[in-house]
Design a protein that fits this description.
mainly beta, globular, five-stranded mixed β-barrel
Length: 76
């Protein structure tokens, strides 16, 4: 599937033992998906950190509210 949106850093699972900050794709219609790179570290991925604040287009699959990205681009 193809997704578009802005990458933002958000605190997820607030108030639980799982509370953490993560990169999230916010789509134009307001949906939010946690981002993960296929075969990337699920907790900290420097390759994705550079996308924070940018609008991207990505390919991937959705699993449990997260997009596991296979590719992405930053449209010019």
């Amino acid at each position: 599937m193809t997704f578009q949106g802005r990458v933002v850093r958000k605190r997820l699972s607030t108030g639980s033992k799982s509370e953490h900050e993560a990169l999230v794709l916010v789509t134009p219609d307001g949906q939010e998906y946690k981002l993960r790179r296929q075969e990337g570290n699920p907790f900290r991925d420097p390759e994705l950190d550079v996308l924070e604040g940018k609008r991207i287009e990505c390919e991937g699959i959705v699993r449990n509210g997260r997009i596991i990205m296979t590719s992405w681009s930053v449209p010019g």
